[in-house]
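Before going further, learn to read the protein records used in this course. A complete example follows; check for yourself that the lines match position by position.
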Amino acid sequence: MSKQTVIIDGGSFIVRHFEHDDARALSQSANNRAIWLNLRDRFPHPYTEGDARKWIDFCQQYKPVANFAIAVDGSVAGGIGIMVQDDVHKHTAEIGYWLAEPHWGKGIMSKAVTDMTAWYFANFDLMRIYALAFDYNPASARVLQKAGYELEGRLKKSAIKDGRVLDQLVYARIT
């Protein structure tokens, strides 16, 4: 990994570009049902090395780069990225993130979301970044609150995950 790929140095972690040799570590970190339960269904479970290679290829081809690896001790332990919206929402992005379970509760994600939110506002033409958290995931809500996101509302029965109808909480940061 070259130093130029580092986006954020969080002390105990870095946020950087995905690299082709990350596939094995990515698949090992991501292949966890507890992670999958808190993400959209397009995040596969089980998560194979083939899935990791496809994701890395996508991230490297997508311009501008908006999705990054979170590395702990030099190995991919999570991911963070945005989806810039279009049409009348073109100055809005949705942020998403995940972290391998052994690293939960250490403050990594709160710092990563805080620092990357500032980075996205500085590097993309955005006025608003929002996130959706399933109502059964208070840890994600705490991450967003610590990162300065405000609760805007509850979307009742707005998602189905693992056969359950769920509410989602909408959090946002505005420039």
Q: What stands out?
A: The mean pLDDT is 96. Helices lie at 23-30, 33-36, 49-61, 108-123, 138-146. The first helix runs from residue 23 to 30.
